[in-house]
Amino acid sequence: MAQTIQMTNEQLRELIEAVRISAVSAAGNAAAAGGADAQGAKAKGSFSACTHNFGGTRDHDVVEEFITNIVTYKELENISDENALKGISLLFYGLASTWWQGVRKEATTWNDAIALIREHFSPTKPAYQVYMEFFQNKQEDHDHIDTFVVHKRALLAQLPSDRHDEETELDLLYGLLNIKYRKHISRQTIQSFKDLLEQGRIIEHNNQEDEELAATSKNTRGSKRTTRCTYCSFRGHTFEHCRKRQKDRQEENHDD
Q1: Burial of 237 (0-12, 13-18, 19+ CB in 10 A)
Q2: Cα distance between residue 96 and residue 85, in whole Å
Q3: Would you say residue 209 has pLDDT above 60?
């Protein structure tokens, strides 16, 4: 026969409190373990989900963009140098993949891999070549000042960092600007590229307004020229405002 256990209200409350504390403690331990597992998983990150890739294009801008993207991804995903070096092949395709198979033994560190990419696909240009490309083209009428300045500064960035200060770079660039900018921006009024871009944007905005006004005025003049009265066939007025029609009607009424 089962024995009945009797508890006072106080004992029952104590038992319930003990169960509650035990449950809270267990949940806390589980959360801590989950956080540790998440940190461990993050620490063991890889390039498997990285969407940036490289096919072997020999273009300085493309190469630098690829390197910047994967370095940033590596930092954000907390990928170790060892895992990054092991997984970098996942980011190559085509010619780059074939190239990596041949040189991967030369890369013993992550920095070695980055240096090899630059060395093979974007080798440092000699200074004279950079200057030739820089002065090769002047700004055309259709070139926005932002785009033009960005491309020219990207070329200058391929020179050693101590080669020119900003003032000298402005001197080099100023003579390549389109005359529509140089007419309104004197070299003495710009102390930085920020100054140049701000003033250049104002000029572009004003020019755009002038073109829109000119187009509107042309359309208005054109519409006036093409207005022709269907009664007398003369231009410049409509049937409703034709004086000849009004005069003829008056004469007809007078004759009646």
Answers
A1: middle
A2: 15
A3: yes
